[in-house]
Design brief:
The protein is mainly alpha-helical and 179 residues long. The chain has 10 helices and no strands. It starts with a helix and ends in a 5-residue tail after the last helix.
């Protein structure tokens, strides 16, 4: 497609467009998984990933030998934070009381986890997803969010406590940190 992202990447460097395309194809699924967990909305997650890929493409010469996926993840997190700051209509409520959940079914466990994650503030959700799903260190999480390591630690503690309260059935997955 003339005028597309790969044309902008290849503006003079042979192989840049191919290298970017190969990287984007391999990283897109991982970035989308992270974005879906951060947002809880598949369509908004796709938009965040596409915006991140455009920003990486525009900086590909500087990023290709570094850590382009870390940069893309940081763009996704920060763009998501900007979005929820503009759209603060979310009101946290207590989860509805219902039937006991059978966690042997992975679908039930996933739905329970999605509901529990929805009970978190956007920043707490971002910390949990980056720390435990993407397996980032506290420092890498702090860098991605643009906050101090102490903030990551305190938000993690509060998030795990809130998850345990929202979904006690998930206690075995949350580990000892909550107690």
């Amino acid at each position: 497609m003339p005028g597309g992202i790969t044309d902008r990447v290849a503006d003079g460097a042979t192989g840049d467009a191919d290298a970017f395309s190969a990287w984007a194809a391999s990283a897109q699924r991982r970035l989308l998984r992270t974005a879906v967990l951060l947002t809880g909305d598949h369509q908004r997650a796709e938009d965040l990933v596409q915006e991140a890929l455009v920003k990486v493409a525009l900086r590909w010469r500087r990023l290709r030998d570094g850590r382009p996926e870390a940069y893309a993840r940081q763009v996704i997190v920060r763009d998501n934070i900007s979005w929820w700051r503009k759209h603060r209509r979310e009101v946290l409520v207590e989860p509805p009381e219902g039937r006991p959940v059978d966690l042997t079914d992975s679908t039930e466990r996933r739905l329970l986890l999605d509901r529990a994650l929805a009970a978190l503030t956007p920043r707490q959700r971002a910390v949990v997803v980056l720390r435990y799903y993407d397996d980032l260190t506290e420092q890498a999480t702090a860098d991605a969010l643009g906050v101090a390591v102490g903030t990551v630690k305190s938000q993690t503690h509060l998030a795990l406590r809130r998850l345990a309260e929202a979904a006690p059935e998930l206690a075995e997955y949350l580990g000892e940190e909550v107690r």
